[in-house]
Inverse folding.
């Protein structure tokens, strides 16, 4: 169950929309923030809070790739391997993340510190390769720079 | 008037419809896959594309509205090519396992590919691999075969309103799944089975047991479970029922079914069916022959009649038997046995409520068309969950909600959780008082109507007495909604009848119906409760609702039936049981009923029946009651006999024979043979012959014939004529100012998946719901330290039981609900009753309960 303050937050979201179904996407983000990922329990909570059927909640949630459907690490690295990034060595960076931090694409490191998601273009072709760590953006990546950046994410 | 040309044929339309519908009206078939006549157009599969002049691209006929002057072509080389292309794309992933798939032979994709091709696919990609899921007990889900037409999801959302399944994922990974991705854990209506065009969702009940083309016969009949009387089709092979399917558009249900109707048919082939008559010899029931058993019954009843008089004999009729059975039965009890002691289990609810409602407001007041619910602006639901008791009626309420109607629930109704606009929770067991307060405040706002003086008088008397000072959350909103509604329906469930002050709830509901000019619906959990009353299986009325105490009516029947009808007033159900206990009733004849299990205070009922000199039970199973009988007579059940049933809308429908394997005899036939042996002549050739007699004597069924009934839409006439006699003096309202301050109270749950004796012998229903559960609010569970699924012991003054706990969010008070459907685990063994002084229904409220986690 959500706690009182989360329920209040969802009520505020509901107030913005003409019907309950419209409040589903933002409420799912809240649930994801609270549970770390959209577990069955998280989706049940959203279903109860909005009075929208559970199956509909899950159907909507599984449509969008920005919702997490399995547990993720404390930090999510989203690395682009699309054309520009690929040419400038993004795939090597993927290998580097694997050897240095033990995190594979679509996987989570054993210490639950990082999860890695391979992204399609994040619009930084001019300064490729690029990645997002949680919601922070980084470009001109190299192995060394990645190491420096990830130092800050424990 | 819209006129358009389709394939050079001119088509005129009365009302605007889609091009697809217009073509169908003109007899032109356009292929479809995602379109289904029971669902809204979707435009997903693109197979129905047509060419329309002056439109640049191909158009989907299902979503394009027909317009005046349109010129449409439904077949052309381009169209065929497009259709073939679409099918080829679908076949990239659809496996070619038709020889193994249960759907082959009635698969829409198979038919389409057969017609449009392609014969060879050009795509070389590997097919999607998803193992068939058998994680559900009823449904097999094969997502390799799914073509993502979303018909099942739309059916579940838009028609059934269960919203238990959805399309999960996206693009190539789309698949239909329930929330859990394993068991469906839904209402199990199976309506998704009806609409699936391919073998993606299949019933496990008959999997791989036959092919659709191997069906020997199909019989259109009606369901045997509840008072709605849904039409369904029984498919038979080798004289056994292979499956039950609905027919879109047919009957009151228009092709929708519920779990009981669709999956509950297997009881009829149960191993437990009685095959031969049983006679008690030296205290043990032994197999016997028909002639021995019937002779014995006739001889014993005759001798009791002779020595103790007719009124020492009583009969309990059955709302599961047909009009014909019940008519013959009451005639037998009245004429052959010489007693008016005839009643039925309906006294515990429907018959009790119906009688008082009719006395107050006139005959037929409770029998309204279910369809009318959909057009109501406000639906006020009291005393039960319509979606569980009468699921298909419940669907009309959900439909009304989708159309914008306000659904107001007094008490709780789980199936309307997502559809209700307001829930008003009365203080525990004070529902009648809340209804009275509502009636008074509405009459204060509106004034009385002045048409029915006695009802007006009753309302005024209430106003004088009722201070209206109960402060209930949502009460004002409820009152305003009712006052402002141009069209109101009141759905009245039997929970409020089973109270010692049930008559007060009924009067209040009647008053509201009258003041608001509302439609009234009584929930009926057995298939022929209305028909049973119409047939005269109530102590005070002859067939057609003719009161026995009106001399002219009685004389007319005496002439028709050739003999005197006894003068003594008949006893109601509980008076019969109590009479047996007190030995004033010596012999009891029970047709198709199981009072030991189905009546509250099972121990008392059992003891009472034990004191009888002679007990005859006529049934299809050796029930708890039959085990106590001196003679048990095997009857025929659903699909084994023909007869008519009258549903809660007073619609008379034919239930047809579909198989020939039954070993029992028709109920009416057993009775008429005994009657003849007792010296009262009954010579019926078949059920139709009995209906001919009913049509002659009953003013409600006048001039009815099987031919007419078979055409459907046969409702008994209602001219507002007070045939059953109106009340002229209101019975005094009884004050039951009980204080209910115990921690928890045990009350009855009417579940969706079970009906009792029949459902517990239906393996599919037992798989869906294998045991009773203890339903309680979240708050109650917290207080008791219980979680969903924990087992708990239930202790009352009368006994104890054990069941798993289910948390039900629709329950908002301290009631704990338990059903009465499972052998040895019923609620009725755990509580006692007190009769309502007016309706003579058993009040079962106020049963204090202790719950201990085990």
């Amino acid at each position: 169950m959500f706690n009182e303050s989360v329920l209040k937050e969802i009520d505020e979201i509901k107030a913005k929309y003409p019907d309950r179904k419209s409040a589903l996407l933002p409420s799912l983000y809240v649930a994801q923030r609270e549970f770390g990922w959209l577990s069955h329990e998280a989706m049940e909570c959203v279903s109860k809070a909005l009075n929208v059927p559970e199956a509909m909640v899950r159907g909507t949630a599984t449509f969008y790739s920005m919702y997490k459907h399995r547990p993720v690490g404390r930090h999510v690295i989203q690395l682009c391997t699309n054309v520009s990034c690929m040419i400038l060595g993004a795939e090597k960076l993927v290998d580097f993340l694997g050897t240095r931090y033990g995190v594979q694409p679509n996987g989570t490191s054993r210490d639950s510190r990082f999860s890695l998601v391979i992204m399609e273009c994040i619009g930084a072709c001019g300064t490729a390769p690029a990645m997002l760590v949680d919601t922070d953006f980084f470009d001109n990546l190299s192995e060394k720079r990645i190491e420096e950046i990830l130092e800050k994410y424990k | 008037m819209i006129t358009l040309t389709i394939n050079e044929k001119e088509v005129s339309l009365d009302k605007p419809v889609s091009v697809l519908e217009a073509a169908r009206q003109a007899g032109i078939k356009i292929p479809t896959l995602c379109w289904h006549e029971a669902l809204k157009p979707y435009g997903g599969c693109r197979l129905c594309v047509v060419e329309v002049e002056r439109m640049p691209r191909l158009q989907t006929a299902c979503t394009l509205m027909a317009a005046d002057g349109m010129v449409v072509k439904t077949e052309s080389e381009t169209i065929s090519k497009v259709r073939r292309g679409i099918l080829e794309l679908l076949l990239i992933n659809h496996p070619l396992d038709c020889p193994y798939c249960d759907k082959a032979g009635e698969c829409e994709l198979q038919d389409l590919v057969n017609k449009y091709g392609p014969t060879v696919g050009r795509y070389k990609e590997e097919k999607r691999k998803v193992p068939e899921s058998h994680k559900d007990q009823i449904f097999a889900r094969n997502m390799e075969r799914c073509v993502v037409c979303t018909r099942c999801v739309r059916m579940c959302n838009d028609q059934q309103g269960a919203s238990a399944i959805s399309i999960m994922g996206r693009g190539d990974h789309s698949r239909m799944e329930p929330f859990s991705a394993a068991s469906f854990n839904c209402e199990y209506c199976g309506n998704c089975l009806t609409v699936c065009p391919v073998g993606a969702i299949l019933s496990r009940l008959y999997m791989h047991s036959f092919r659709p083309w191997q069906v020997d016969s199909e019989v259109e009949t009606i369901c045997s479970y509840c008072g709605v009387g849904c039409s369904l089709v029984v498919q038979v092979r080798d004289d056994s029922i292979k499956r039950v399917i609905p027919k879109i558009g047919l009957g009151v249900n228009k092709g929708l079914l519920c779990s009981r109707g669709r999956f509950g048919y297997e009881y009829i082939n149960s191993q437990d069916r009685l095959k031969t008559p049983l006679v008690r010899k030296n205290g043990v029931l032994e197999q016997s022959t028909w002639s021995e058993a019937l002779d014995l019954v006739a001889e014993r009843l005759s001798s009791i009649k002779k020595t103790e008089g007719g009124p020492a004999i009583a009969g309990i009729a059955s709302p599961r038997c047909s009009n014909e059975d019940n008519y013959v039965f009451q005639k037998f009890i009245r004429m052959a046995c010489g007693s008016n002691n005839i009643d039925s289990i309906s006294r515990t609810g429907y018959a009790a409520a119906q009688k008082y409602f009719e006395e107050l407001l006139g005959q037929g007041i409770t029998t309204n068309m279910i369809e009318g619910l959909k057009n109501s602006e406000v639906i006020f639901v009291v005393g039960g969950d319509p979606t569980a008791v009468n699921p298909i009626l419940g669907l009309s309420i959900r439909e009304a909600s989708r159309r914008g109607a306000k659904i107001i629930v007094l008490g709780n109704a789980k199936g309307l959780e997502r559809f209700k606009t307001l829930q008003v929770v009365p203080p525990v067991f004070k529902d009648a008082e809340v209804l009275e307060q509502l009636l008074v405040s509405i009459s204060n706002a509106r004034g009385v109507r002045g048409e029915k003086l006695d009802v007006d008088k009753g309302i005024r008397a209430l106003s004088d007495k009722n201070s209206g000072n109960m402060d209930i959350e949502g009460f004002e909103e409820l009152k305003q909604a009712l006052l402002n509604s141009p069209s109101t329906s009141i759905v009245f469930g039997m929970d409020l009848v089973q109270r010692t002050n049930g008559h007060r709830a009924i009067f209040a509901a009647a008053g509201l119906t009258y003041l608001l000019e509302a439609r009234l619906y009584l929930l009926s959990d057995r298939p022929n409760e209305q028909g049973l009353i119409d047939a005269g299986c109530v102590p005070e009325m002859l067939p057609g609702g003719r009161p026995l105490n009106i001399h002219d009516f009685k004389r007319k029947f005496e002439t028709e039936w050739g003999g005197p009808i006894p003068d003594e007033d008949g006893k109601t159900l509980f008076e019969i049981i109590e009479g047996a206990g007190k030995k004033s009733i010596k012999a009891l004849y029970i047709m198709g009923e199981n009072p030991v299990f189905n009546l509250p205070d099972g121990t008392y009922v059992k003891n009472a029946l034990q004191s009888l000199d002679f007990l005859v039970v006529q049934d299809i199973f050796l029930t708890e009651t039959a085990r106590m009988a001196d003679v048990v007579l095997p009857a025929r059940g659903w699909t084994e006999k023909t007869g008519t049933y009258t549903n809660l809308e007073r619609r008379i429908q034919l239930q047809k024979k579909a198989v020939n394997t039954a070993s029992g005899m028709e109920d009416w036939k057993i009775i008429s043979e005994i009657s003849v042996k007792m010296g009262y002549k009954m010579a019926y050739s078949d059920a139709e012959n009995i209906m001919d007699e009913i049509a002659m004597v009953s003013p409600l069924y006048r001039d009815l014939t099987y031919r007419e009934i078979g055409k459907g839409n046969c409702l008994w006439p209602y001219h507002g004529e007070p045939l059953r006699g109106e009340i002229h003096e209101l019975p005094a309202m009884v004050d039951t100012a009980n204080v209910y301050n115990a921690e928890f109270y045990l009350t009855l749950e009417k579940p969706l998946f079970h009906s009792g004796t029949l459902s517990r012998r239906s393996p599919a229903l037992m798989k869906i719901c294998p045991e009773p559960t203890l339903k309680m609010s979240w708050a109650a569970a917290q207080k008791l330290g219980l979680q969903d699924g924990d087992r708990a012991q239930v202790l009352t003054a009368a006994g104890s039981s054990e069941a798993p706990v289910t948390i039900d969010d629709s329950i908002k008070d301290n009631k704990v609900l338990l059903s009465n459907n499972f052998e040895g685990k019923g609620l009725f063994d755990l509580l006692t009753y007190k009769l309502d002084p007016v309706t003579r229904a058993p009040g079962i409220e106020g049963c204090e309960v202790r719950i201990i986690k085990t």
Observations:
- Chain A touches chain B through 14 residues (CB under 8 Å).
- Strands of chain A lie at 75-80, 114-119, 131-133, 136-138.
